[in-house]
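Q: Sequence in, structure out?
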Amino acid sequence: MIIEEKIGKGEHAQAIQTAERYITESKMTEKDGLHLRLIAEEMGELMTNLSGKRTGRLSIGDDEAGCTVTFRLTQEEDAAACLEKSSSGGVMSKISRILSLNYHELETGNTELADIGLRKALADDFAEMGLKPQGPAYVWTQEAYNSLSLDRLYEDDSESWIEISRSIIANLSDDIRILVFEDHSELAVHLSFEKRERKQTGKYATDPELERLYRIPVAKSRFQIKMVQLLYGRLPDKQESTESLKVEKLRIPCSCAPKEYVSVLKYTPAANTGKKAAPAVLFMHGGAFMLPALPYHYRLAQTVALRTGSTVFFTLQHLCPKYTLPLPIREAYEVYRYLILNGTDLGIDTERVAAMGDSSGGTMTAALALLARDRDITPLAAQVLLYPSIGLDYETQSMKEFTDVPVVNAEAIAAYHKMLRTDKDADEFFVHPASASSHKDLPPTYLETAEFDALRDEGIAYAELLRKNGCEVTLNQTKGTVHAFDMAKDSRVLAEAMDKRIAFLNRVLK
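A: Exactly. Output:
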């Protein structure tokens, strides 16, 4: 269903009336209807604030996941008077400024495109908006704004990025895109339907202590990824030493990294102080290669250090989609190589170094085990893979079944796959470890799966593959669990799983 209305300057109420028609005819839920009203109201306000004699057309159309609200505006010959509207911060200010520009001005270079995140549109940009190429255009996406805001935050600790939260559109929508053509501009805002957040506690026999995880939003859009990066990107700076655990912040040389080093946190148990050859664990956090380490990752690393007596090296790899795969894996390998070549200075026994990771960190761990086996370097003593992504097989039963479970599900995994870009050396660095030509001579492996996890079956299949190739495998198929159930820090099911992880590491690193 598509509803469309012509809207002129100052016709604020018309936008809301259009939304009301759509809400009634499509029988939207109360929550979705409220969100659409708010977005339509902000679009109406946007039209009211634009100067000149521009006319617009507001349309609302369905798709499988939600609806897209599109605002089509005529161009103006003289847009200079509109540019003063951009003096305030925030997403809506940015949108207002871009909609006030015309194609000719962009072509003549009178506007600093980088400052507002505009670039020439490609065929992929039209495809992502469900459009056929309509001629030359410039494109702006919501992620461009947040990338620039994030850069400002890290460069000068500016508070301007908080303006993101002051826009209804920015909070409620999954995606925002603007196309500037020769004769018109189009603003498209996508709103997902309520099913993305519905609670499925009755559908799956999830452990009652994990029910809280259903309240965690599943990040599936670039904007949501950026927001998580923004919210948690500074957690490494907050890791401090305690009486029982010393925390050091290292910069390990890495030729492939953007600044030729990788930041690594070193967790040293107090009992290891002064030891010349303690066991070590190289920990790689998950997050679809795109999300920063979350609080549970740091808890996991600390627990491993304290309960195994190992020195834990926690890598803070560079994140996608800004960077392409296999960069995080290449960085992990160079960090591991540095540990092996500098073991004496680091106080570790290079014959007793294990690798550990969850989700995409499990992918990195499995890839590292293959790389260490194939290259002229000491192989890993063991690998610990927690609900890992191993082969990206969309045909497994768990991938087909678990499309709506919390934290991560099949729909989110498909979205991540579209966002990730790979270089030509992806296969060389085993981005999909299950696709390696050989799985012989790999170290003892602990592999853990979650019962209601889209990645469950490929994890089980990888354990079987390693066993067939002579690898010692401990497979722990946890019950009543979902992906990243480590988030439920006080749960019984996590405590039981942690005991098994620690027992494995203590055995292989003794």
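The first strand starts at residue 2 and ends at 8.
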